Amino acid sequence: MRISRFRQAVMVTIALLLVFALGVPAWAARPIRIGFMAPFVGVYTQLGEDMDRGFKLYLDEIGNKAGGRELQVFLEDTEGKPELGPTKARKLLDNDKVDLLSGIVHSGVAISIRDIVVERKVPLILTNAGAPALTGKLKSPYIFRVSFANGQQDLAGGWYAYHKLGFRKMVVIAPDYSAGHDKANGFMKYFKEAGGTVVEEIYPPLSTNDFGPYLTKIADQGKAIDGVWSFFSGSGSIRLVTQYEEYGLKDSVPFFVIGDTVDDAVLPSMKDAAVGVKSYHHYADTLKNPENEAFVKAYVAKYKTKPGIFSEQGYVGAKVIAMALEAVKGDIENTDAFLAALRKVKFNAPRGPFAFDESQNVILPVHIRRVDKVGGTYQNTVLDTIPDVDQDWSPAKMKK
Ligand code: BEZ
């Protein structure tokens, strides 16, 4: 009894010392706990690993501290399965007592935990999952996204395909789940409005390993098409791009794809099959700006491999969280102040200028890229940039 009173007295004294002598509130002694959800098995494993690496790289750079408090990360493997989302989120919230959630690759996983975070008033900072509803009709003050809404970059991509690259008749091929359809619809919107024709839409299962039957259909189109648009990511993209070459399509029907399909992280596995493929995305590791040069250098030093799109998204997600924590001096317990600080975050990211729109979705530069082989290694060379692309982008926003 005497020992426990003594311990209590010591704890109270330390807290009072922090508050009055050092000006640090008592809660500051407790680390901030971040729940990070990502897939570490399945088709999106590469995405999960890269996002996690980028996130941890930024936290390392700031000594795992922000706003005067230690940051601890609790990782959960979602396996890219929407049905696992709620269980994993509840485990992080109830067992690990996390203060906020971040990560998530698969749109279905993000949708599956939407009501949990909103009801419990937990900030969720998405670093990939692009379900447009989360920053649209199901938006919430608790939900932020630093990556993209599915369809967002594609609005500009479809416009560019018609007006700048001269495509007129295309096939689109994307995985048969919400992200595939949302991205394809985004791409088709201004491609068709400009006068382009989508000759066929093909939606294979997300887990497709053999694209042969779909590539045969594309080859059957012959001269009826002049290009193919695609969104596949992770292991699916490697199979699609290598088989595209094996089926003799690479040189006859050019690809113009979303950057995931030829992400820097998967180029070494695709080898020459990807060379010459043009794509669009908010990131390429060849971007020439001081923030990207420092990011690539630090990433290569730590992981001995170049970063890709998902590495950058993880890095940016961690930086956004840390900047908001700095702004509120670590007081994440004041949720409203923390959310307000998140909304105001602005900085130069490796991709270019970073800011949220009013629905808490990121506004992006969309870079047009081409896969080149330079000195024996593969890279996405940036050819052009469409600045300030938001989730409601339209060609009227082009500064001509
Ligand atoms: C999504 O499910 O939203 C998604 C997954 C992988 C890459 C991009 C988007």
User: Counting H and I runs of at least 4 residues, what is the number of helices?
Assistant: 13
- Order of helical and strand elements: HEHEEHEHHEEHEHEHEHEHEHHHEEEE
Q: Return the average pLDDT rounded to an integer.
A: 94
The span between the termini is: 77 Å
Give me the CATH architecture of the largest domain, please.
Answer: 3-Layer(aba) Sandwich
Oligomer: single chain
Physical arrangement of strands within the biggest beta sheet? 2-3-1-4-5-6
Number of strands: 15
Radius of gyration: 22 Å
Shape, per Cα inertia axes: globular
Tell me roughly what share of residues is in helical segments: 25-40%
Briefly characterize the structure.
The chain is of the alpha/beta class and 400 residues long. Helix content is 39%, strand content 21%.
